[in-house]
Write a structure and sequence with these properties.
Layout (H helix, E strand, L loop, with lengths): L1 E7 L2 E7 L5 H8 L18 E4 L2 E4 L11 E3 L12 H8 L9 H14 L5 H7 L10 H15 L11 H12 L5
Parallel strand pairs: 1-5
Antiparallel strand pairs: 1-2, 3-4, 3-5
Length: 180
């Protein structure tokens, strides 16, 4: 066991742990944070994503000893009782179905919008490619990212204002009998 200090959501935590322990286990088991989830355990699905120094990090495969800098979890996005625009957009667009992957979806969207406040449809698809959803809510995720971007830019955004690409994909899905 070794002593380590992790700064999570603005608070420093002094821990006595095995330095090879995955960050996810520290966040959930030792600090009681429920946002990051164990999904695949291989760093492929994104359910465990947290933000470290502005980058989405798969906490299930990241040993706590490798983390240098501030860790931001889903619980740390809201400020002064106000949801982050990405969180609010997720609610407004009714993105979650089962909700299991939503931590990873939101954290990846936050990183995407912090780096690119006005992404194109292609940039959204590329930026979110590593965040998997079993329920296939990708069209809602896309719409929520567009809404959050508009909110962050100070523009009004309605659910019906989907981009042409998302509208077209929704129509194709409906024709094929899929649920969008």
């Amino acid at each position: 066991m070794s002593k380590i200090t992790l700064k999570v959501n603005g608070q420093s935590h002094n821990l006595d742990i095995d330095l090879s322990t995955p960050l996810l286990y520290i966040l959930r088991n030792d600090l009681g944070l429920q946002g990051p989830r164990f999904g695949c355990g291989l760093g492929q699905c994104g359910a465990c994503a947290v933000i470290v120094n502005g980058a989405a990090v798969r906490s299930c495969v990241t040993p706590c000893s490798a983390v240098k800098g501030d860790i931001l979890t889903l619980e740390g996005l809201a400020k002064e009782g106000r949801l982050d625009p990405v969180q609010q957009a997720w609610i407004d667009e009714q993105v979650p179905q089962c909700g299991f992957c939503q931590n990873g979806q939101i954290m990846n969207a936050k990183v995407l919008l912090d780096r690119n406040p006005n992404p194109t449809d292609a940039e959204i698809r590329e930026g979110m490619a590593g965040a998997l959803c079993r329920c296939m809510t990708y069209y809602r995720v896309h719409a929520a990212i567009k809404r959050a971007a508009a909110t962050m830019a100070g523009l009004p955004r309605r659910s019906a204002d989907l981009s042409a690409g998302a509208r077209s994909a929704n129509a194709e899905g409906a024709k094929a009998g899929g649920v969008a």
